Amino acid sequence: MPENNHAADFSISRDHINTFLAIVRCNTLSAAAQELFVDQSTVSHRLKAMEEGLNVTLFSRNRGLRTLSLTEEGELFLKMAENWSNLLDEMAALHTRKKRIPLSVGSISSINLYLINPFLTDLARREKRLRLEVSNHSSEQIYRRLEHRELDIGFAFSPPHYKNLEATPVFSEPMVLLIPYQNDYPNTDISPSALKRGNEVFFPWPTNAYQQWHDSWWDSSEAPVVTLSTSSLMSMFLAAADNWSVCPASMAQHLKQVRAADFRFFDSPPPERVSYLLQRKALKNERNENLRIFLPYFEEFLSCHPWRYR
Q1: Would you say 234 and 261 are in contact if contact means Cβ atoms under 8 Å apart?
Q2: Domains of the chain with bracketed CATH
Q3: CA 7 to CA 56: how far, in whole Å?
Q4: What is the pLDDT of residues 174-186, one digit of tens each?
């Protein structure tokens, strides 16, 4: 990157740090923008300001792809950004740390983004007794962090195999057909037999029941368009008119609202996706103060949710 004489004048902010970390997690500007609930142009502007202000290139742009990867300087800055983010959080909470009760919630990213996002934002606004910490993890990471008391509450797609953890099913939502926003699909339920495996944007939703349903309709030896490791990249590959994918209804509704995709229901649908609330058994019996505050709010939210588990 060319030398920037104004680098000394650059003042990095929490927004810059949060944007950088979101791009690292999501690998694309569009997915990072969705996670941060801002326009892609805002993400691009913040990234450009950081790179010019720091006089380094943080990400390499992969030719022919929209994905970004960290440069050597980006890898170094990642460690600084994570430490900086933690320090900013601690500084912001310094004056209330002794007054507020910590509550750490860990979840699969799609549950955080599309199912419990309104609940968590409302809880943070309404409940001043809690110091809320929210993070994204894989299911196995959630189980381990609960076991090690690094989380108080978890949300995942399958019950844990840890004897000290208890799982309560809380959501059950349909899995739907995700299609391009501009499409020629009829406005009716779609048969899986009408879809070609060669046009699939495949994400391996982690349940045996879903995989069995999928394998009953499509030959697993035939290659899809792409196989994704994160569901947040789905909309990026739906630009082609014939491409399709499968995702939970909550995610599909959000993508339709932001005009990133459309969806249809299946006439022979896969099993619904069940989400579980996880906690340590000992904590449930002890009824710690943070859970005594959290659980009634969550039960209130769940009672009127269209996809609450019945």
Answers
A1: yes
A2: 7-92 (1.10.10.10), 101-172+273-303 (3.40.190.10), 175-264 (3.40.190.10)
A3: 10
A4: 999 999 999 989 9
Phi, psi angle pair for 202, to nearest 5°:
-95, 125
Identity of the residue numbered 113: L
Q: Report CA 270 to chain centroid distance, whole Å.
A: 22
Q: What are phi and psi of 70, to 5 degrees?
A: -70, 140
Distance CA 37, CA 52 (A): 24
Q: pLDDT for 97-151, tens place per residue?
A: 557 889 999 999 999 999 999 999 999 988 888 999 999 998 999 999 999 999 9
Give the CA-trace dihedral at 155, 309, 262, 199, to 10 degrees.
70
Using left for φ > 0, alpha for ψ between -120 and 50, and beta otherwise, residue 55 falls in left
**CA proximity to 116, closest of 102, 103, 134:** 134
Query: pTM of the predicted model, to two decimals?
Result: 0.65
Measure the CA–CA gap between 136 and 113, rounded to whole angstroms: 10
Look up residue 77 and give its two tokens. Answer: 């800055």
At 123, which amino acid appears? L
Q: What is the CA radius of gyration of the chain?
A: 21
Polymer length in residues for the chain: 310
| Coil, strand or helix at 299 | helix
Q: Are 273 and 279 in contact (CB under 8 A)?
A: no
What is the arrangement of strands in the sheet containing 101-107, beginning at the earlier edge strand? 130-136, 101-107, 153-156, 273-280, 165-173
